[in-house]
Every structure is written in structure tokens, then in C-alpha cells.
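BUG: 3D viewer hangs when loading the predicted structure for this chain

Environment: internal workstation, default settings.
Expected: structure renders.
Actual: progress bar stalls at 90%.

Input used:
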Amino acid sequence: MIVELLVLFIMFILPVILCRYKIIGFNYRFLVLLMLSLLAAAFSIFYGWSLMTLGITFNNLSIDLVPYILITAVASMALIFIYKKHLKPLPIIFSTLFMILLISFLQEFVYRGFMMPVLGLLTKNYFLIILINVLLFWLVHTIYINDLKSHIIILAGGLIFAIMYILYPNLILISISHAVLNAIAVYSCGLYKKEFRA
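C-alpha cells produced before the viewer hung:
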């Protein structure tokens, strides 16, 4: 239990503190996410977890596809509706799309695929697992956002992703869903522009 709490602190709280207080520069955020992903992979090997434990599976793609399509469509429409005053389509740059997909996969691997099994070692209470997951997912996004509306959207998105992953544990589908919503935020709503600046 102490090891799992230490892992949660080192991987999900300490990096945010270091970024918030500018000990780690904002320009190194992708490198930090990549390092956390490698650390999560190492801990997963240490725990002896299979790819299925981490949600990396093709077995349930056809079963879980419909719920993920529905939730992604509804969340996309909601995001566009909420930010309709700010809609400014940007030119699509494939390198940015690749980064959105990569960042979305790494975040889902770390926050859903890895964190949820770690939380499952600490408690079997799904409500508590979801709550902690949502709060830590929101915490990392506080580095990028500073307005109340965006905080609410990130909390709601984190809640939806956490519940979807508990009900339909598929890292591939949740990463695609996350990437679609990130792409809408970046290209249509103008959110997180600085996240993808060179």
C-alpha cells in the first residue's frame, strides 16, 4: 500500500508541482509525459501486469466501439456548443494531429491504463477509484488552463473517461476518443493553443 501511494505521488502529483512552480519548464511537458509513460511501463512489468490488465486489447473492440462512438459524438457536440463563440477553424497540420494522437494515448496509458489498476490495489471501491482518477487527471490539466469553464470541462471529461474506462476497459478506443476531443479543442475551439506551439 505504501509503495502504491508513493507511486501515485511521484507520478501524478510531484510532476504537477514541479511544473506549477516552474522547476520543470513548460516546454518540457511532453518529455515529462513520455518519462511518466516509461515509468508506468516499468512499474507494470514490476507488477507483472499483462497488456489486457492495462486495457491494451483488441478482444473487445467490436463490443465497446458503439459506446465509445456515442460518448465521443455527444462530448464533441457539447464541446463545440460550449465554445461556439470561439470557433476559429485552424489549418490542419498533420504533425499537430500526430502529437495530439500521441499525447492522448500517453495520457490514457498513464491515467487510465496504469493508474486505475494501481488504485485498484489500494481500494476496490469504484467510486473512490473514479474520484481519485478524475482529480489527478484534472490536476495535471491545471498547468494548461486558468478559466472556470475549462476547469469544469476537464473535470467532466475526466469523469466521463474514468467511467467509460471502468465500464469498457479499452485503451485503444479511449485514446482515440481522447484524441478526437483534443483535436476539436485545438482546431475548432482554440483551447490549449500553447500546448502545441513550437
